[in-house]
Amino acid sequence: MESRLSELRRYMLPAKLDPTRSYTPREYDRTRGYRLLVHAELEACLEDLVIGVANQAFKSWTLDRRPRQCLIALLAYYEGNLGAVPDEISNAGSSTKPLRTRLKVARDNYVTWVRMNNNGIRESNILRLVLPVGVLESDLDAGWLQTMDAFGSARGDTAHQALRTQQPPDPTAEYQTVQDIVAGFRKVDAKLSALAK
Fold first, then answer.
1. Dihedral angle of Cα 155, 195, 136, 74, to the nearest 10 degrees
2. 65-74 confidence digits (pLDDT tens)
3. How far apart are alpha carbons 175 and 9 in whole angstroms?
4. Second label for 195, Cα 20 to 30 Å away, from 90, 110, 116, 169?
5. Model confidence at 52: pLDDT above 70
6. Domain residues of the chain, as ranges?
7. Triad 44, 73, 138: Cα angle to 5°
């Protein structure tokens, strides 16, 4: 992701970031494009990471049956109905699902939601992506979440408002925001990597 963001910086932002912040209309439009493309890269990367964690944790569990924080969280956040605990062993297969099936259903439902329904990197999107794979609220930096939320909001304004109603984005500020996001993203990536084991 970081190499792609570096490419976008080279392709989209002015070669020299002007301290007086005097840019041409073309440079402002390219900065808007930078914002949109960076948002897409961040969203895709986070989605790929959380799906990778869910899939790897499930695969590892099928091999060694060791409990994993990711799988516990997937079950805890699963909103569907998996059935009750059986009353007797002879009825176990009739109205309930075995643990392997429960985990697979929760994982598959989560992966489908991420691929089909996630639409952004606002705070609510991030929480719906990372909490169900075992990231704790305390693992997330509140400042980073606010920066992500503001960036996601700015992306929405850029994508959905008429140009005449938008404040031109400052290339210098936009670049610095992305650098701050990437710094926080590294911590989230490290936490997700640890959960995949």
1. 90
2. 999 999 999 9
3. 8
4. 116
5. yes
6. 2-8+24-84+91-195
7. 80
pLDDT in tens, 83-125: 777 666 665 555 567 888 899 999 999 999 999 999 999 999 9
Residue 132's identity, in one-letter code, is P
What is the total residue count of the chain? 197
Contact 149, 123 (CB under 8 A): yes
From the number of C-beta atoms within 10 Å of its C-beta (0-12, 13-18, 19+), residue 136 rates as exposed
Q: Is the dihedral of CA 171, 173, 179, 185 positive or negative?
A: negative
* Helix (H) or strand (E) run with residue 37 in it: helix 25-64
Q: For the chain, what is the largest distance between any 2 Cα atoms, rounded to a whole number of angstroms?
A: 77
- Check residue 96 and report its DSSP letter: -
Lookup: tokens for 131? 């909490």
| Cβ contacts of 31 within 8 Å, gap of 6 or more | 12, 13, 23, 168, 169, 170, 171, 174
At 182, list the tokens.
């990437």
In this prediction the pTM is: 0.90
Amino acid letter for position 129: L
**Torsion sign (Cα): 155, 156, 160, 165:** negative
Structural Rg of the chain based on CA atoms: 21
φ and ψ of 132, to 5 deg: -70, -10
